[in-house]
Amino acid sequence: MKGFVEEHTIKATNRTFDPKTFLLAVKQKALENFQSQTKVRLVLKARMEKLSPTDGSSIVEIRNFQSKTAIVLESTNLDELWTEIVEQILENISVFQMSGSGWAFHSIVGLEIHTVKYKPLRRGTYIPLPKFLASKKALINMKFKSEKRRNDDVQCFKLCIARALNPVKDHPERITRQLEKQAETLNFDGISFRMKLKDIKKFEQQNPQISVNVLGYEDKKIFPLRISEMAEREHDVNLLLLEDKHFVRINDLSRFLSHQMSNHKEKRFFCLRCLNSFTKKEVLDKH
Question: Is residue 59 within a helix (H) or strand (E), and if so which, with residue range?
């Protein structure tokens, strides 16, 4: 596919390695392929062994244990991502061995690293919400009322923050002159637009009353991209990042995330780091 998809293989030279030790040993070499703006999937190839039910001889076969596909962005913490991927692979091995098939780990063959360039649509302006997200009625997608000004919308982050601090009941998505003036009271010194995830920490430092969390969305799945380290602030703003370029305000977090856990309609309290939900805020705080 003309270089769009790549596969890298790290072979196991030491057959005494167990899966966890092997993955720890190859971590730095593997992370060299975790470039920004890529999707990554790891496949651990391992020899599995069991006894033949007929004559008791040893049967050895190669089995693949893969991780979920992960998106590597500029702001991604690679150490945390690697830990998550390793846990997925080890869990898959454990489930396979506990399935009653009689297979046991024998030795490592190697690790395959599959990468594909993650190319969101080219930078534009206003992005309509996908039908799946729009139906949730939990998001505010900022938009100029006038089509003539639509192409000027490159500061969606700033406008989402301003709307969170200055809520209105009617047409909260509209970008008015008043909202633009309110946005100018925020401190963006030294920060350029479009807003990058890595710059949000600087924004929080310059605006001590605000903390910002950012979630991502792909294939009808919602996942954390950036969770603020600034707790107990006056304004805790939750945003959704679409196509790695367009920020949308999450106006009702419980409604927005509720589809991920059940069909219950009561208000839920969510942990943004793991997306588990709880019926009471006290239980969430304890978690």
Answer: strand 58-66
